[in-house]
Write a structure and sequence with these properties.
By secondary structure, this protein is mainly α. The chain is built from 8 helices and 4 strands. The protein starts with 7 loop residues before the first helix and ends with a strand.
Length: 199
Amino acid sequence: MRDFELTVEALQELRVAHKAAKKASASEAYRINAIILLGTGWTLEEVVDALLLDDETLRNYVENYKKGGIEKLLERHYKGGTPKLPIKYFEILTQELESNIYLTTKGVCEYVKDTFNIEHSISGMTALLHRMEYVYKKPKLMPGNSDSEAQEYFLKEFLKFMQNKKKNEAVFFVDAVHPTWNSMAAYGWIKKRKSSRLF
């Protein structure tokens, strides 16, 4: 960009900030990336094509950076609206989500409507769940943990029963019938960083 060139020190500072921003905010990393490109010889048109941003936005990034460096560049003035669900209900909803895994966002919307008489759109509820640090994921299937003491006790009692039963008495083993042979994991809303294994 004409009349905008970065010093070696400024470029190094921006690269360090870009590396940190990549982990925290893609939006911030994007802004820093634009400044690095514009300040290292890329034209405005080339950056518009590469980052799919309009030239007015890029000019604003440069002006903000010139005025106050990285801090001014990353400054945000957007304030979100008031959430539909009052704060006092968040704890109740969290307890519900901890007690029951909801397989769909629609199911959470229905719970909120039935419990608090507040309607949410699917996209609005999805955004709320993400803000509450829930993610939509599939749990890992793990084999059940067998109780060796219970198995030994059953075997001991079974052998005793077999020795004491009448000679012509039949013994039958019955198991529950399932529509599928193995358990199948389904996606659901689960707290981020919480173990999501099914036992």
